[in-house]
């Protein structure tokens, strides 16, 4: 039954990879349609909602072949160069047996014991405790390990982490995550493109409350008050629809990551135990990595490939990794491992050392009972308080959802801010018109 579940998981990953690639093109078309809506508002600011929607759909049909070619080119670039891009972000580099004999031998022994082709081995210079696997085919497969992980874990724990990453490669999880990263990259690229388009536009009250460029606003003729109100409302509605489509595309890209299911991490932990026959080593490794895996400067796409992806607060809603505690509980329940309990985090250790230093500084001097105590005191230097280690640097990774939320609020706020003065000016103009008395 376990073998059936494992092979079903591998086949399901391959099917979902193809399904996600199909979904990528659909998201691209949605983003192109949103861009066409904005373009139609810029070209003609006096249309109705139905006019904008129909014109944007016609533009989508014309642009679909070019969008498809762009998406295929993006996939090809990611297929051949994704490892180089990840190495550029993380600073990972290949190592040989002579450079890292301990790590190389551990990985080689695991691969030989299971008849697995040995992936490339990379080292990332970072004090963080983490590791990740990448690659889309056997020639590209690689496992990257941080120097902090090598220093903090013993051989059995490192072997457990390597087994975890090998299981990801064997089960096809790596290909699936790379496809998800490609989708997120496409959505992020188009989102930034449309954001720059929004910021380059000016609101022209003379054109009826529609988005227009500064150079074209002077050449448009003013319409009647009722037509201006109706067209301005249509332009605002279309802009809101475009923003909603962009945000929806981003949300769908995040749902795609959640659709990968957190169960792949449980299966990778179980696969590591199957390779090493040591559930305690996997549990101990997870406990040491817990709270210490944040890679400074790494993007969220890279962190989602790691053994542990620590997230807190709002970002945890889109986490693709289960918590360390739930993974440890599963290993204890199903693999018979023993849990030593959570280890003190770096912040706790820093606070404890700081408290000890404060107690030493506040402690009164020892009492002297004779002249010999003065001699001893003058001969020995005063106690020096223990240095307080510096606070860990804050995480540099900013959740993309905050950026999307900020852009959405900014666009809607700008539209409303400029619409209200325009409507108010029309009201004053109508009020100041002379009225005939009955």
Topology, element by element:
Layout lengths: L1 H42 L5 H42 L2 E2 L6 H14 L5 E5 L6 E4 L7 E5 H6 L2 H17 L1 H27 L2 E3 L5 E3 L1 H4 L7 H35 L3 H14 L2 H11 L10 H4 L20 H12 L10 H17 L8 H9 L20 H33 L6
Parallel strand pairs: 2-4
Antiparallel strand pairs: 1-2, 3-4, 5-6
Key terms:
15 helices; two-stranded antiparallel ribbon; 2 domains; mainly alpha; four-stranded mixed sheet; 438 residues
Structure in words:
The structure is a single chain. This protein is mainly α and 438 residues long. The chain folds into two domains: 1-94 and 162-343 and 400-438, no CATH class; 347-394, no CATH class. Helix content is 66%, strand content 5%. It has helices at residues 2-43, 49-90, 101-114, 147-152, 155-171, 173-199, 214-217, 225-259, 263-276, 279-289, 300-303, 324-335, 346-362, 371-379, 400-432; strands at 93-94, 120-124, 131-134, 142-146, 202-204, 210-212. A four-stranded mixed sheet has the order 1-2-4-3, sandwiched between helices. Strands 5-6 form a two-stranded antiparallel sheet. A hairpin with a 7-residue loop joins strand 3 (131-134) and strand 4 (142-146). Helix 5 crosses helix 10. The longest helix is centred in the first third of the chain and has 42 residues, at 2-43. It is elongated, with a radius of gyration of 30 Å. The termini are far apart. The model is unreliable at 205-230, 368-382, 386-409 and 411-432 (pLDDT under 50).
């Amino acid at each position: 039954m376990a073998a059936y579940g494992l092979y079903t998981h591998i086949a399901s990953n391959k099917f979902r990879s193809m399904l996600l690639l199909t979904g990528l093109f659909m998201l691209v078309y949605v983003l192109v349609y949103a861009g066409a809506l904005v373009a139609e508002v810029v070209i003609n600011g006096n249309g109705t909602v139905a006019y904008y929607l129909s014109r944007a759909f016609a533009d989508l049909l014309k642009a679909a072949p070019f969008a498809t070619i762009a998406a295929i080119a993006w996939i090809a670039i990611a297929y051949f160069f994704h490892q180089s891009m990840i190495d550029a972000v993380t600073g990972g580099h290949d190592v040989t047996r002579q450079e890292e004999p301990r790590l190389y031998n551990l990985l080689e022994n695991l691969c030989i014991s299971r008849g697995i082709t040995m992936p490339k081995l990379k080292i990332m210079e970072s004090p963080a405790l983490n590791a990740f696997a990448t690659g889309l085919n056997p020639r590209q497969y690689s496992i990257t390990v941080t120097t902090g992980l090598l220093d903090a874990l013993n051989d059995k724990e490192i072997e457990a982490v390597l087994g975890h990453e090998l299981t990801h490669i064997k089960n096809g999880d790596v290909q699936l995550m790379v496809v998800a990263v490609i989708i997120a990259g496409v959505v992020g690229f188009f989102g930034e493109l449309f954001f720059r388009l929004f910021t380059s536009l000016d609101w022209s009250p003379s054109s009826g409350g529609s988005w227009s460029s500064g150079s074209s606003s002077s050449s448009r003729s003013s319409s009647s008050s009722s037509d201006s109100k109706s067209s301005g409302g249509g332009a605002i509605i279309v802009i809101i629809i475009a923003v909603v489509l962009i945000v929806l595309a981003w949300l769908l890209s995040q749902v795609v990551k959640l659709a990968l299911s957190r169960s792949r991490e449980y299966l990778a932990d179980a696969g590591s135990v199957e390779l090493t026959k040591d559930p305690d080593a996997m549990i101990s490794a997870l406990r040491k990595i817990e709270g210490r895996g944040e890679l400074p400067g790494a993007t969220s796409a890279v962190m989602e490939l790691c053994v542990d992806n620590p997230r807190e607060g709002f970002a945890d809603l889109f986490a693709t990794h289960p918590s360390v505690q739930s993974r440890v509980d599963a290993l204890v329940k199903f693999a018979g491992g023993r849990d030593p309990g959570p280890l003190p985090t770096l912040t706790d250790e820093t606070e404890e050392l700081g408290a000890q230093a404060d107690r030493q500084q506040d402690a009164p001097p020892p009492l002297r009972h004779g002249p010999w105590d003065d001699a001893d005191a003058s001969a020995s230097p005063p106690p020096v308080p223990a240095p307080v280690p510096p606070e860990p640097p804050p995480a540099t990774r900013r959740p993309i959802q905050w950026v999307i939320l900020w852009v959405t609020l900014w666009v809607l706020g700008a539209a409303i801010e400029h619409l209200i003065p325009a409507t108010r000016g029309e009201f004053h103009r109508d009020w100041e018109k002379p009225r005939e008395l009955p």
